[in-house]
Structure formats: structure tokens, C-alpha cells
């Protein structure tokens, strides 16, 4: 890309917003020109706004530290200064949906970490290696919104980023029933052990809303484009339990799957080994190579050892073995605030930029 695109980050002071800024530092295609948050942070230098609550292991990026935080609700002003925005605001679903649509109508594409538009039929919910073709629905969305360049694209819930990529290369075997139990890090709740000491030496067997998202969102990702909208897939049936565990980062999933046509172990391993999506084919800056990594060691993947595979964008898999109730079972792991949140959104933006949906104003 000859000239970097100007980017704004909405919700920049929260944990996902912080992750956006850390990932975008020195990005070859994008330059953060603006940070925005709630009215209570507006007017402060970014370094001041996150003082005492910066949660990343790396320092606040120097360029971002010096920026003055804008009010995310000041749509016209922000839209006039950037080519597109990433959204990670902490607002109600209704407020978020309106804000994102306001930016899109102001001809500023929105790539969102939020859930407000995940079920809007003409909004693509993307894992770029899996459903890159869903970007085509943006033309219908633009017609609905009356825009030429503005649109909304979203990434799915962090809980599905580990097991959906592992199942996807096996779709032609007809997965019918999937049971999954996810063991989810505290950063998924925007917490650290310093801010949530109750999680030390503790497990909480409930995460509000997470199981429904884990069961339903994959069906949109595997859906088909029809008449300007995405129609959800009918199968597989997914049953999920989502558990909060005392881990800083990384969501681990234990998966059980039954197929219409049971594949052999060697067939599954070959599919995982050979699979690559459009980000890998295009050589996008954040695309992990390989996308999927299988460990023969029964003790892997481990959260601490393997969550950073592919700079946090890769998916790791292990313990593939026959199951007495289902056909096969395995475990898999993703980094929840990189692949599962900000990093997945950055990769989505890269794909949409490469395909001409995001351009300089």
C-alpha cells in the first residue's frame, strides 16, 4: 500500500481498544490518527486517560500516548479526520448499533469488535480465513444505508475463534452435532488479576450470554449469501458450555464432533495441515502462517506456551482421538484479545482493504 490509511479507534481506553493500539503500532498499511472514548475521557491526552489501567505487556505506543482523546459520539468531526474506524466502545447494544450506523452513514467504514450488528443480515461477521466471500454482502448493505463507501463489518465472539477454524476444513464430511466446552481467560471480561483478585485460584462455570453466542454465531459464519443478506446454515447443532478460568489470556476449547461421513484421523490431520484461507493466499500483514497448527504432544496446546502462535493470530490444535459417544474429540486454543478481538478485526480490515472495500477518502 503506497500510502497508509488514517485510522481512528473508538473505545480506545478499554482493554480491546488498548490491544488495537498495540497491534497497530508500526502497521505497514494503517496509521492511528485519532483515539476516541466516552465523554469522561475526552480532552485528556491518551497517556493520561489510561494511566494506571494500561493492561498490555508492551508500553503505550508513543504516537498514541500524545493524542488527545476525542468523544466517540462526535461522529461528524471524527469521520472528517480518518479513512475508517475500529470500534470497541463500552456502550449498550442499542447505543452501539446506532453509533456504528451513524459512522457508516457518514461514509466512514466501521470494523467492529462489538456484538450490536452481528445479527444484522447484511452485516458480514467475519473470520477472514473462513468466510471472506461474505464481504460481497457489503454492496447490499451500502444500498440499504444509502452510502457509497460507508459500511459496518464485525468479528464474531471470542469464544468461537478456537474451535470454528478447526471444524471448518472438515465441513464436507457433514458435521451434524458438536459439543464444546470453552475455558476462557479473564481478559475476555476486560480484567486482569490485579483488577479481579477473586479469580485467583477460582473457576466460574458461567459467562453471561456466551453459550448462546457460541452455539449460534458459527451458523452465520457458515451461512450463504442470498438476496442481499446472509442466511444462516442449518447445521451442525452445537451445544456449548463456557467457563471462566484463572488464565490471563487465551481461550481453550474441548470439542466433540459427530459427522454424516466420519473422516479418518489421517484425513483430518491432512485437512488441518493443508488448510489456508484468503489472508494467507494474499499475504496480508497480520495473516498467520500457518493458520492451523497441530501438536502431536498430548500435553499441547497449552495456554501459556501456545496462545501467541502466529503473533496471536494462529489457532493451535491437539489431542485428536476417537470418542465413545461422538466420532472424534480434540482440543484447540486461540488468543482471545488478539485473534478473538482486536487482531481479528485488524485482519478483517486488511482483507477488506485488499479487496477495495476500504480506501482513502
UniProtKB/TrEMBL annotation:
Keyword set, alphabetical order: NADP, Oxidoreductase
Domain Semialdehyde dehydrogenase NAD-binding: 6-138
Gene Ontology MF terms in the entry: aspartate-semialdehyde dehydrogenase activity; NAD binding; NADP binding; protein dimerization activity
Cross-referenced CDD domains: ASADH_C_arch_fung_like (cd18130), ScASADH_like_N (cd02315)
PANTHER family for the chain: ASPARTATE-SEMIALDEHYDE DEHYDROGENASE (PTHR46718:SF1)
Protein family (similarity comment): Belongs to the aspartate-semialdehyde dehydrogenase family.
Name this polypeptide is given: Aspartate-semialdehyde dehydrogenase
Species this protein is from: Anaeromyxobacter diazotrophicus
